[in-house]
Amino acid sequence: MKLFVTGGAGFIGSQFIRDWVKRFPQDQIINFDKLTYAGNLANLASVEFNNSYSFIRGDIRDSDALLEAIPHGADAVVHFAAESHVDRSIHGAAEFVSTNALGTQVLLDASRHRKVARFMHISTDEVGGSMNSEEWLKEDSPLKPRSPYAASKTAAEHLVRAAGETFGTDFVVTRTSNNYGPFQFPEKLLPLAICNAMENKPIPVYGDGMQVRDWIHVEDNCRALIATLRDGRAGQTYHIGGGFPRPNRYVLESILALLGRPKSLLAPTKDRLGHDRRYAVNFDKIARELNWRPLISFQDGLRQTIRWYQENQDWVKAVRSCQYLNYYKEQYGESLASAKAA
Ligand code: NAD
Ligand code: TYD
């Protein structure tokens, strides 16, 4: 197969590429990524010199660049590229609308012109909005996004479905719950908490810390994405969940216990604006149709993830000190320092 992956230098996209190369070494993968503050080529060091893998730096809003980069008749576009952090979307929603909504449309158009066989759109359980304690988001539940991030991802989903209806684009949409695992940028809760705890720094707990997220290990997610791309039915949406919804405090206390750090590191702070109380996805459909279920228990996955951050201090230090942005500056002759500062 020939795959065109967007956002493959980020957390989930890089795991997807590493896994795909391992499982299907004869396939060709092009990784098209803008390398924002969240994109890091160090995440792909293990496949960098593989003949089946290549990297192109570009922006999904740049139609000409896409038309040049997407191979005619490619088997699939796998669309990860996005602005992905809710807190950033609260401070500046416009970039989220631009990348996540407009960027998806530009990519859909270019994929159609290049006669790509399948468009896989990576979405999120956050499009369903906040669930009450009894609710589980189903594939056909109404979409009720509540943050600018979730709203921009909802717009993107609608545009993908509109392309399916209007032009007959073969697409699949996946909605995953909160991922965790190696190589996650330490602005999201889990890696932030692990990195801060390792350095005995306080961990910000928004509000009462009783908001619920359904944690899934990124390897389980990528196994589901691979199954969906290969065998998912055209025009369908598939939920991918960890089956482990827990309050943030539970997660944070588990991290502190595994690292042998005191609970006094938990630092209650002002709540996030419009903070969604609970996400929970029903993933019966993918279990039934594609025989997928998560295999990594939260305790095992968390232990493995903590170990990875302990053993990869250089990666953490580089990311936290923006060293890799300087590296890109040298590599590509362009300053990305302002992107990080923003
Ligand atoms: P990430 O922020 O780690 O990576 C995003 C990648 O997209 C980066 O490599 C970045 O450089 C690239 N990018 C951003 N804007 C771009 C542009 N205009 N053109 C080209 N590349 C661009 O994100 P992630 O956590 O790996 O998430 C990947 C996808 O999965 C996103 O679409 C996100 O909405 C979705 N998702 C994430 C989670 C999660 O828990 N992380 C859960 C559900 C869904
Ligand atoms: P996050 O990792 O940003 O993912 P999302 O908001 O997309 O679910 O946050 C996960 C949960 O942790 C969410 O309820 C917000 C909370 N949170 C904190 O309490 N403190 C923090 O410093 C961060 C980043 C998040």
Count up the helices: 13
CATH architectural type of the domain at 2-179 and 216-243 and 276-295 and 322-332? 3-Layer(aba) Sandwich
Please report the distance between the alpha carbons of the first and last residues: 38 Å
CATH superfamily of the domain at 2-179 and 216-243 and 276-295 and 322-332: NAD(P)-binding Rossmann-like Domain
Quaternary organization: single chain
Q: Strand content of the residues, in percent? A: 15-25%
Strands, total number: 13
Q: What is the CA-based Rg, rounded? A: 19 Å
Order of helices and strands: EHEEHEHHEHEEHEEEHEEHEHHHHH
Strand arrangement, major sheet: 3-2-1-4-5-6-11
Low-confidence residue ranges? 335-342
Remind me, CATH topology of the domain at 2-179 and 216-243 and 276-295 and 322-332? Rossmann fold
The unique ligands bound to this protein are: nicotinamide-adenine-dinucleotide, thymidine-5'-diphosphate
3D structure, described in words:
By secondary structure, this protein is α/β, with parallel strands linked by helices. It is built from 13 helices and 13 strands. It has a 7-stranded parallel sheet, sandwiched between helices. Helix 1 crosses helix 7 (218-231), helix 6 (189-198) packs parallel to helix 8 and helix 8 (248-259) packs across helix 10. The longest helix is centred in the N-terminal third of the chain and has 21 residues, at 93-113. Mean pLDDT is 94; it is low at 335-342. It binds nicotinamide-adenine-dinucleotide and thymidine-5'-diphosphate. The site of thymidine-5'-diphosphate has 12 residues, from helix 6 and strand 8.
